[in-house]
Every structure is written in C-alpha cells, then in structure tokens.
Amino acid sequence: MDTFCTITVVSPSREEAIEAVDAGFAEIKKLETLLNYFSDQSEISTVNRAAGSMPVEVSIETLEILKKSLDISKAANGAFDPTIAPVIKQWSFSKDSSVPVIPSGKVIEHSLALVDYKKIKINAETREVYLEDKGMELDLGGITKGFAADKAVDAIKNKGVTAALVAVAGDIRGFGLNISGQGWKVGIQNPRTRAGSDKPWEDIFAVLRLKDKAISTSGDYQRFFIKDGVRFHHILDPQTGYPSESGLISVSVIAPEGYLADGLSTAVFVLGAEKGMTILESMGLDGILVNNNRKVFITKNLKGKIDILNKEYQKAE
User: For an engineered disulfide with 193, which of 141, 150, 156, 203 has Cβ 3.0 to 4.6 Å away?
Assistant: First the structure.
C-alpha cells in the first residue's frame, strides 16, 4: 500500500506468532491487489473504466469497503467522498516538488462535476457496482488502510492469537493487551515537526493507550507543498476541490474499527473543530483535533486518558 506496515503479536508460541503475522500481511496484500487505484488490474480500476457504461461485479471485500465508505459519506454529509479522484488527479502534492502547480479554477470546476458519492450505485445481491457518470472515478485511499488493518486483525484472530497491534502507516488497530498487560501505547505525530528532520514520525506530541480500538490520524503535513508562503495539502474539501481550510492541522479519531477511524479522520479534518467534535460525540467516538494555533480539542471520554508531551501544544478549554 505504498507505506510501512507493521504487525506486532503477543503469543507464547513463536511459530503461532509467525503464522499469525504472515496471515495478517497476506490479507493486506490481497486488499492492495483489489483496491489499488494506481493498478490497472485492480477491481477499483475496472469499476472506474466502466463508469457511465455498465455495472461491474466485484469481490465481497470490495463491496464491503464501498458500502462502509458510503455510510461514512452520508454520516459526514459528503465531507468524505470516495469519488474525489478526478480532483485529486489535478494536484501534485510532494515535499520534493520543485515547481508545484495549482490547478486553475476551470479545471477544478470541471473535475468537481464528477464528484458525488450519491452516484455510486451498489447491488448487494449481484455484487455489482456502477458509477453513473462517464469520467467518475473511485479512490478509496482515505479508508483503505484502516479497512486493511481491520481485515489483518480478523486474520490474526483466526489463528488463535489473543493480542496484536496492526499499523498500516498512521492507521492502527489493536486488540488484547501488550506483553506488560496494558493497552497498546500509541503516539500521535507532531504535525509541525522540526524542519529537515529525517525521521519526523518519531517526533511525538501526545500518547495514549489503545485497547480493543483503532486510531487513525489525518494531517496537513503528510503530503503537501508550499507556494508563496501558503501550504497546499492533500486533504481536499469535496465541496471546493481545494485543500481544506478548516483551521485544523491534525485529526486523530478513535473508533471500534479501523475503517471508521480512517474515513472519519478525513471527514472531521474537512468539517473543522466545532462540527467535527459534534459528529464524533454524536457517534460515541473519540478524537484529538489540533488547530493551526496548536490548540488541542479532546472529546469528553478521552479527557484524562491522553498525555500531551510537547509544551507547544495546549488543551483547549
């Protein structure tokens, strides 16, 4: 999935642990084959090529993630939209980009006309997916890693393991207790790490314990470029086609399953602190939201359960 994946297993048997780890990675690889937007052979690419033409029969896994994606889109009123691909294609987010280009308003407007999650049609009985308009495209990058962590956990549990942690980049799912008998200790990356740091992921601003839950972090520091002093990042607002201007720089969502944490971290980032906190509280989920003034908003249930290590970040009242 073009990122680092790690699986940690607690087991009295080395052989059992290795078998479980292999099963988890096999599941992630399988999903990459099905859901990779950049592969012509994936099911997602097949659905995209048939947009506006005909429905495509897909696997149980692809059908499942699409249904889950639509559930999140509806819950977030479109702040998460898996049909955002035509707009994403117009941008090039890279720290190494020497000449970053900002798409014109006309290009964005034309691409936005192809963005509408309500035009994804699913027939559960025949396992068929259809995109109503020619030129529409699915890109499930905003939910795939969390979904993959979920499926890896299922595969590991099926091997009889009672405790493990699966991390697909910033999408983490844990179950059971670590070797010290506690919940898994998880760090949240500093969204404004030191310039020039060769290991920015090791700069942690907060930590918490994860027990039988998933956590996913979305931030404006993961893929971006700076032009004329303005940061253009990869989390696009499906309403405007431009990088979200919600005032947030990092959002971590804690949920029972990885797909939910993954999709909602993107949606909450777009919605902003006030609406984001409201939707998380209404769904009984937890979150850590950081704005551009380094104020940290924490849902009620998390208060007292998270340690902020970096003094530059202060809890919002």
Answer: 203
